[in-house]
Specification:
The complex is a heterodimer of chains A (273) and B (45). Chain A is an all-alpha fold and 273 residues long. Chain A has two domains: 209 residues, no CATH class; 56 residues, 2-Layer Sandwich (Alpha-Beta Plaits), CATH 3.30.70.20. In chain A, 52% of the residues lie in helices and 3% in strands. In chain A, helix 10 crosses helix 12. With 45 residues, chain B is mainly α. In chain B, 69% of the residues lie in helices and 0% in strands. Chain B is built from two helices and no strands. The chains are: A mainly alpha (273), B mainly alpha (45).
Protein backbone atom coordinates (compact mmCIF):
# COMPACT_ATOMS: atom_id res chain seq x y z
CA UNK A 1 0.00 0.00 0.00
CA UNK A 2 1.42 3.39 -0.96
CA UNK A 3 1.57 6.41 1.30
CA UNK A 4 -1.33 8.23 -0.37
CA UNK A 5 -3.69 5.30 0.15
CA UNK A 6 -2.62 5.05 3.79
CA UNK A 7 -3.22 8.76 4.28
CA UNK A 8 -6.75 8.30 2.98
CA UNK A 9 -7.27 5.60 5.61
CA UNK A 10 -5.83 7.92 8.27
CA UNK A 11 -8.09 10.81 7.19
CA UNK A 12 -11.17 8.57 7.27
CA UNK A 13 -10.20 7.18 10.71
CA UNK A 14 -9.65 10.71 12.06
CA UNK A 15 -13.00 11.82 10.70
CA UNK A 16 -14.85 8.80 12.08
CA UNK A 17 -13.31 9.27 15.55
CA UNK A 18 -14.16 12.99 15.41
CA UNK A 19 -17.52 12.78 13.71
CA UNK A 20 -19.19 15.33 16.00
CA UNK A 21 -18.26 18.15 13.61
CA UNK A 22 -20.71 20.68 15.01
CA UNK A 23 -18.80 20.52 18.30
CA UNK A 24 -15.91 22.36 16.64
CA UNK A 25 -18.20 25.35 16.14
CA UNK A 26 -20.27 25.24 19.33
CA UNK A 27 -17.42 24.35 21.72
CA UNK A 28 -19.52 21.59 23.29
CA UNK A 29 -18.34 17.99 23.49
CA UNK A 30 -20.36 14.99 22.33
CA UNK A 31 -22.34 13.32 25.12
CA UNK A 32 -23.95 10.39 23.31
CA UNK A 33 -23.91 6.75 24.40
CA UNK A 34 -21.06 5.78 22.03
CA UNK A 35 -18.69 7.58 24.37
CA UNK A 36 -18.50 4.59 26.67
CA UNK A 37 -16.44 2.80 24.00
CA UNK A 38 -12.72 3.50 23.71
CA UNK A 39 -11.31 4.35 20.29
CA UNK A 40 -8.11 2.50 19.27
CA UNK A 41 -5.91 5.60 18.80
CA UNK A 42 -4.90 8.60 20.88
CA UNK A 43 -7.87 10.94 20.56
CA UNK A 44 -8.77 13.05 23.60
CA UNK A 45 -12.39 12.63 24.69
CA UNK A 46 -12.51 16.32 25.48
CA UNK A 47 -11.97 17.13 21.83
CA UNK A 48 -15.23 18.75 20.63
CA UNK A 49 -15.36 16.31 17.73
CA UNK A 50 -14.61 13.10 19.65
CA UNK A 51 -17.36 10.48 19.60
CA UNK A 52 -15.45 7.88 21.63
CA UNK A 53 -13.26 7.73 24.73
CA UNK A 54 -9.46 7.89 24.70
CA UNK A 55 -8.06 4.56 25.98
CA UNK A 56 -5.14 6.19 27.81
CA UNK A 57 -7.34 8.82 29.48
CA UNK A 58 -9.91 6.17 30.43
CA UNK A 59 -7.23 3.86 31.81
CA UNK A 60 -5.76 6.57 34.02
CA UNK A 61 -9.19 7.58 35.30
CA UNK A 62 -10.16 3.98 35.99
CA UNK A 63 -6.88 3.33 37.82
CA UNK A 64 -7.22 6.46 39.92
CA UNK A 65 -10.79 5.63 40.95
CA UNK A 66 -10.35 3.72 44.18
CA UNK A 67 -13.31 1.39 43.67
CA UNK A 68 -11.76 -0.19 40.59
CA UNK A 69 -9.00 -2.59 41.50
CA UNK A 70 -8.37 -3.70 37.90
CA UNK A 71 -9.88 -1.69 35.02
CA UNK A 72 -11.05 -4.78 33.11
CA UNK A 73 -13.19 -2.90 30.61
CA UNK A 74 -10.55 -0.46 29.33
CA UNK A 75 -7.74 -3.03 29.47
CA UNK A 76 -9.97 -5.54 27.66
CA UNK A 77 -10.60 -3.07 24.82
CA UNK A 78 -6.91 -2.17 24.58
CA UNK A 79 -5.95 -5.85 24.60
CA UNK A 80 -8.51 -6.49 21.85
CA UNK A 81 -7.13 -3.71 19.61
CA UNK A 82 -3.58 -4.85 20.35
CA UNK A 83 -4.17 -8.53 19.60
CA UNK A 84 -6.15 -7.74 16.47
CA UNK A 85 -4.05 -4.97 14.97
CA UNK A 86 -0.86 -4.34 16.95
CA UNK A 87 0.74 -1.05 15.99
CA UNK A 88 -1.22 -0.86 12.76
CA UNK A 89 -3.40 1.35 15.00
CA UNK A 90 -0.50 3.85 15.05
CA UNK A 91 0.10 3.66 11.31
CA UNK A 92 -3.49 3.80 10.10
CA UNK A 93 -5.95 4.78 12.82
CA UNK A 94 -4.37 7.25 15.24
CA UNK A 95 -5.39 10.90 14.60
CA UNK A 96 -2.30 12.28 16.35
CA UNK A 97 -0.09 10.00 14.26
CA UNK A 98 -1.83 11.34 11.16
CA UNK A 99 -1.11 14.91 12.26
CA UNK A 100 2.57 14.07 12.68
CA UNK A 101 2.68 12.38 9.26
CA UNK A 102 1.30 15.59 7.71
CA UNK A 103 3.78 17.73 9.64
CA UNK A 104 6.71 15.67 8.43
CA UNK A 105 5.70 16.37 4.84
CA UNK A 106 6.33 20.11 5.39
CA UNK A 107 9.65 21.05 3.79
CA UNK A 108 11.93 21.97 6.69
CA UNK A 109 15.62 22.89 6.37
CA UNK A 110 16.69 20.26 8.89
CA UNK A 111 15.45 16.68 8.57
CA UNK A 112 16.90 14.23 11.07
CA UNK A 113 16.51 10.52 10.29
CA UNK A 114 18.19 9.21 13.39
CA UNK A 115 20.78 10.29 15.92
CA UNK A 116 23.03 8.84 18.58
CA UNK A 117 20.92 7.50 21.42
CA UNK A 118 17.76 7.37 19.28
CA UNK A 119 16.99 3.74 20.12
CA UNK A 120 17.68 4.27 23.82
CA UNK A 121 15.47 7.36 23.94
CA UNK A 122 12.61 5.32 22.46
CA UNK A 123 12.46 3.36 25.72
CA UNK A 124 11.19 6.54 27.37
CA UNK A 125 7.65 5.80 26.18
CA UNK A 126 7.63 2.63 28.29
CA UNK A 127 8.65 4.69 31.32
CA UNK A 128 5.85 7.17 30.51
CA UNK A 129 3.36 4.29 30.28
CA UNK A 130 4.44 2.72 33.53
CA UNK A 131 4.99 5.87 35.57
CA UNK A 132 2.55 8.48 34.29
CA UNK A 133 -0.31 6.22 33.18
CA UNK A 134 -0.16 3.46 35.82
CA UNK A 135 1.95 4.17 38.93
CA UNK A 136 1.26 7.87 39.58
CA UNK A 137 -2.51 7.78 38.90
CA UNK A 138 -2.78 4.81 41.28
CA UNK A 139 -0.65 6.52 43.94
CA UNK A 140 -2.32 9.93 43.67
CA UNK A 141 -6.07 9.59 43.35
CA UNK A 142 -8.01 11.49 40.70
CA UNK A 143 -5.00 12.79 38.78
CA UNK A 144 -4.45 11.55 35.23
CA UNK A 145 -0.75 12.50 35.15
CA UNK A 146 -0.07 11.82 31.48
CA UNK A 147 -3.15 13.76 30.35
CA UNK A 148 -2.47 16.59 32.77
CA UNK A 149 1.22 17.18 32.11
CA UNK A 150 2.09 15.75 28.69
CA UNK A 151 -0.70 14.71 26.33
CA UNK A 152 -0.51 16.96 23.24
CA UNK A 153 -3.80 15.60 21.91
CA UNK A 154 -5.56 17.03 24.97
CA UNK A 155 -3.83 20.37 24.52
CA UNK A 156 -5.06 20.56 20.94
CA UNK A 157 -8.57 19.94 22.28
CA UNK A 158 -8.00 22.70 24.86
CA UNK A 159 -6.93 25.15 22.16
CA UNK A 160 -9.99 24.36 20.03
CA UNK A 161 -12.30 24.59 23.04
CA UNK A 162 -10.81 27.86 24.27
CA UNK A 163 -11.46 29.47 20.88
CA UNK A 164 -15.10 28.46 20.85
CA UNK A 165 -15.88 28.54 24.59
CA UNK A 166 -15.23 31.96 26.13
CA UNK A 167 -15.70 30.68 29.70
CA UNK A 168 -12.78 28.28 29.22
CA UNK A 169 -10.65 30.93 27.53
CA UNK A 170 -10.94 33.09 30.63
CA UNK A 171 -9.38 30.48 32.93
CA UNK A 172 -6.30 29.53 30.92
CA UNK A 173 -3.28 29.46 33.22
CA UNK A 174 0.22 28.14 33.84
CA UNK A 175 -0.68 24.52 33.14
CA UNK A 176 -2.07 25.46 29.76
CA UNK A 177 1.14 27.38 29.00
CA UNK A 178 3.21 24.32 29.97
CA UNK A 179 1.13 21.95 27.89
CA UNK A 180 1.08 24.31 24.92
CA UNK A 181 4.90 24.53 25.10
CA UNK A 182 5.13 20.74 24.96
CA UNK A 183 2.69 20.65 22.04
CA UNK A 184 4.69 23.27 20.11
CA UNK A 185 7.92 21.38 20.83
CA UNK A 186 6.39 18.14 19.50
CA UNK A 187 4.94 19.86 16.43
CA UNK A 188 8.24 21.58 15.54
CA UNK A 189 10.17 18.35 16.21
CA UNK A 190 7.62 16.59 14.00
CA UNK A 191 8.75 18.65 11.02
CA UNK A 192 12.36 17.53 11.58
CA UNK A 193 11.98 13.98 12.90
CA UNK A 194 9.43 11.42 11.71
CA UNK A 195 6.76 10.96 14.43
CA UNK A 196 8.77 12.09 17.50
CA UNK A 197 5.81 11.70 19.85
CA UNK A 198 5.15 8.12 18.72
CA UNK A 199 8.84 7.24 18.96
CA UNK A 200 9.66 8.71 22.35
CA UNK A 201 6.57 9.55 24.39
CA UNK A 202 3.36 7.80 23.37
CA UNK A 203 2.19 5.37 26.09
CA UNK A 204 -0.40 3.88 23.75
CA UNK A 205 2.31 2.99 21.23
CA UNK A 206 4.29 1.47 24.10
CA UNK A 207 1.27 -0.64 25.04
CA UNK A 208 0.66 -1.85 21.48
CA UNK A 209 4.36 -2.47 20.67
CA UNK A 210 4.63 -6.01 22.14
CA UNK A 211 1.49 -7.04 20.25
CA UNK A 212 3.30 -6.69 16.90
CA UNK A 213 4.56 -10.22 17.57
CA UNK A 214 1.14 -11.80 17.81
CA UNK A 215 -1.33 -9.41 16.12
CA UNK A 216 -3.52 -10.87 13.39
CA UNK A 217 -2.34 -8.23 10.90
CA UNK A 218 1.40 -8.64 10.48
CA UNK A 219 4.32 -7.96 8.16
CA UNK A 220 5.34 -10.97 6.13
CA UNK A 221 8.81 -11.33 4.56
CA UNK A 222 9.33 -13.65 1.62
CA UNK A 223 12.93 -14.71 2.32
CA UNK A 224 13.29 -16.32 -1.09
CA UNK A 225 12.44 -13.11 -2.92
CA UNK A 226 14.46 -10.84 -0.60
CA UNK A 227 17.85 -9.84 -2.02
CA UNK A 228 18.87 -8.00 1.19
CA UNK A 229 19.22 -4.72 -0.68
CA UNK A 230 17.90 -2.90 2.43
CA UNK A 231 15.69 -0.60 0.35
CA UNK A 232 12.97 -1.32 2.92
CA UNK A 233 14.95 -0.11 5.92
CA UNK A 234 16.04 3.00 4.00
CA UNK A 235 12.45 4.14 3.39
CA UNK A 236 11.28 3.30 6.92
CA UNK A 237 10.51 6.46 8.89
CA UNK A 238 10.73 4.56 12.16
CA UNK A 239 14.23 3.31 11.22
CA UNK A 240 13.26 -0.35 11.51
CA UNK A 241 14.87 -3.14 9.51
CA UNK A 242 11.79 -5.19 8.53
CA UNK A 243 13.83 -8.05 7.09
CA UNK A 244 15.90 -8.49 10.23
CA UNK A 245 12.97 -8.07 12.59
CA UNK A 246 9.50 -7.88 10.99
CA UNK A 247 7.85 -7.94 14.43
CA UNK A 248 9.87 -5.02 15.82
CA UNK A 249 7.77 -3.14 18.38
CA UNK A 250 8.84 0.13 16.77
CA UNK A 251 7.21 -0.80 13.45
CA UNK A 252 3.95 1.12 12.99
CA UNK A 253 2.90 -1.15 10.08
CA UNK A 254 2.63 1.79 7.67
CA UNK A 255 3.56 -0.50 4.78
CA UNK A 256 6.09 1.92 3.26
CA UNK A 257 8.71 -0.84 3.29
CA UNK A 258 6.38 -3.11 1.32
CA UNK A 259 5.75 -0.49 -1.36
CA UNK A 260 9.47 0.41 -1.40
CA UNK A 261 10.64 -3.18 -1.92
CA UNK A 262 11.74 -3.67 -5.57
CA UNK A 263 11.24 -7.45 -5.26
CA UNK A 264 7.84 -7.21 -3.56
CA UNK A 265 9.14 -9.46 -0.80
CA UNK A 266 7.24 -7.67 1.97
CA UNK A 267 3.52 -7.35 2.56
CA UNK A 268 1.00 -6.61 5.28
CA UNK A 269 -1.07 -9.74 5.66
CA UNK A 270 -3.15 -11.88 7.99
CA UNK A 271 -1.66 -15.12 6.69
CA UNK A 272 0.93 -17.12 8.65
CA UNK A 273 3.73 -19.20 7.21
CA UNK B 1 0.81 -22.08 14.89
CA UNK B 2 1.82 -21.13 18.41
CA UNK B 3 1.39 -17.46 17.52
CA UNK B 4 -2.19 -18.13 16.43
CA UNK B 5 -2.89 -19.67 19.85
CA UNK B 6 -1.47 -16.57 21.53
CA UNK B 7 -3.52 -14.27 19.30
CA UNK B 8 -6.75 -16.16 19.84
CA UNK B 9 -5.96 -16.43 23.56
CA UNK B 10 -5.51 -12.67 23.82
CA UNK B 11 -8.74 -11.98 21.93
CA UNK B 12 -10.67 -14.40 24.15
CA UNK B 13 -9.11 -12.86 27.26
CA UNK B 14 -10.02 -9.39 26.04
CA UNK B 15 -13.63 -10.52 25.48
CA UNK B 16 -13.76 -11.93 29.03
CA UNK B 17 -12.29 -8.75 30.51
CA UNK B 18 -14.71 -6.54 28.56
CA UNK B 19 -17.61 -8.70 29.79
CA UNK B 20 -16.41 -8.50 33.43
CA UNK B 21 -15.94 -4.75 33.04
CA UNK B 22 -19.44 -4.25 31.66
CA UNK B 23 -20.90 -6.45 34.43
CA UNK B 24 -19.15 -4.25 37.00
CA UNK B 25 -20.44 -1.08 35.34
CA UNK B 26 -16.98 0.09 34.29
CA UNK B 27 -18.26 1.12 30.86
CA UNK B 28 -20.65 3.53 32.57
CA UNK B 29 -17.74 4.93 34.57
CA UNK B 30 -15.82 5.54 31.33
CA UNK B 31 -18.93 7.16 29.89
CA UNK B 32 -19.39 9.49 32.87
CA UNK B 33 -15.80 10.72 32.53
CA UNK B 34 -15.88 11.02 28.74
CA UNK B 35 -19.00 13.17 28.52
CA UNK B 36 -17.54 15.93 30.70
CA UNK B 37 -14.74 18.23 29.61
CA UNK B 38 -11.63 16.84 31.31
CA UNK B 39 -10.00 20.00 32.68
CA UNK B 40 -6.67 18.24 33.28
CA UNK B 41 -6.59 16.90 29.72
CA UNK B 42 -7.18 20.27 28.10
CA UNK B 43 -4.70 21.97 30.42
CA UNK B 44 -7.03 23.79 32.78
CA UNK B 45 -7.27 21.60 35.86
Amino acid sequence: MDDKKRMKWQAIATLVQNANLKGFFTGKIYQGKVKNVCVPGLNCYSCPGAVGACPIGSLQNALSEYKFKIPYYVLGLMLFFGALLGRIVCGFLCPFGFLQDLLHKIPFPIKVRTFRGDRTLRKLKYVVLLLMVVVLPVAYKFTPFFCKYICPSGTLSGIILSFTNTALFAVLGKLFTWKTSILILILVAGMMIYRPFCKYLCPLGAFYAPFNRIAIVRLSVDREKCTKCHACSQVCGMCVDPVENPDDGECIRCGLCASGCPEKALKLTVKRE
Amino acid sequence: MKKWYKTIGCILLSAIWIAIGIRNGQNEQVFMKAIKICLECVGLG
